[in-house]
């Protein structure tokens, strides 16, 4: 979805550099309201190319910046690429803080560069989807049941961690949040994983369990 005063021109030029993407569809609108209307129609936009400033009968306004939170709300999985002639660091920082994925300065890019940026955004979406699916599978493997996106994100993160060797993980949260379930999910299938309830151990026993002990240090210490 392109939301820009020069939307038609940008769409035509982008179309010529994105024609190798067979399933790619470009929708261009010249105002923020038209963009929101197209989203309301239910079209599943993956990437939004958004200008910041728009001219109206009342003058120029930064409608592009103002609409980012609403776009993020309506298209939570989409990549929002802000492109503008205003590349002031404060403007870029504000766009990112509001939820933009990346920023392109209009006077310093080519249309092939935009196409490359969009391709990268699509790859990130696919990677996130794959990670989310891995998280769902991991949750099923340990019998975890939940409905919140927050827990889905936790299991997606756990699935990513599980793929990495020799990584240290600290899991925090209140009693009953599911810390042991997440730990078991990460350790599932690993012969190196075992669980210790440190609260049930004295200081000396915990030291022994975590760091080992010398043979003969106490009765039964045979190695």
Distinctive features:
alpha/beta; 7 strands; 11% strand; two-stranded antiparallel ribbon; 223 residues
Model description:
The structure is a single chain. Helix content is 47%, strand content 11%. The chain is built from eight helices and seven strands, in the order βαβαβββαβαβαααα.
Which oligomeric form is depicted?
single chain
Give, in order, the helices and strands. Answer: EHEHEEEHEHEHHHH
Q: Which consecutive residue ranges, at least 5 long each, have pLDDT under 50? A: none
Distance between the termini: 66 Å
Could you give a short account of the major beta sheet?
5 strands, parallel
In short:
This protein has 223 residues and is an alpha/beta fold.
Please describe the topology of this protein.
Blueprint: E1 2-3, H1 7-17, E2 28-29, H2 32-40, E3 47-50, E4 54-56, E5 59-61, H3 63-74, E6 79-84, H4 89-98, E7 102-105, H5 111-141, H6 149-162, H7 179-187, H8 203-211
Parallel strand pairs: 1-2, 1-3, 3-6, 6-7
Antiparallel strand pairs: 4-5
């Amino acid at each position: 979805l392109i939301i820009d005063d020069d939307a038609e021109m940008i769409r035509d030029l982008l179309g010529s550099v994105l024609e190798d993407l067979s399933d790619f569809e470009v929708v261009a609108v010249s105002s923020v309201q038209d963009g929101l209307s197209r989203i309301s129609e239910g079209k599943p936009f993956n990437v939004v190319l958004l200008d910041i400033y728009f001219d109206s009968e009342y003058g120029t306004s930064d409608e592009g910046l103002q609409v980012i939170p609403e776009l993020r709300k309506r298209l939570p999985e989409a990549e929002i690429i802000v492109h503008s002639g205003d590349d002031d660091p404060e403007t870029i920082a504000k766009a990112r803080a509001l939820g933009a994925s990346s920023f392109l300065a209009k006077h310093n890019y080519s249309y092939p560069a935009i196409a490359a940026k969009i391709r990268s955004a699509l790859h990130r979406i696919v990677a996130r989807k794959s990670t989310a699916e891995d998280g769902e599978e991991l949750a099923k493997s340990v019998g975890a049941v939940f409905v919140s996106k927050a827990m889905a994100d936790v299991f997606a993160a756990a699935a990513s961690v599980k793929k990495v060797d020799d990584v240290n993980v600290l899991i925090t949260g209140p009693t009953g949040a599911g810390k042991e379930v997440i730990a078991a999910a990460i350790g599932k299938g690993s012969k190196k994983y075992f669980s210790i309830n440190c609260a049930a151990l004295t200081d000396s026993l915990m030291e022994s369990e975590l760091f080992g002990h010398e043979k003969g240090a106490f009765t039964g210490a045979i190695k």
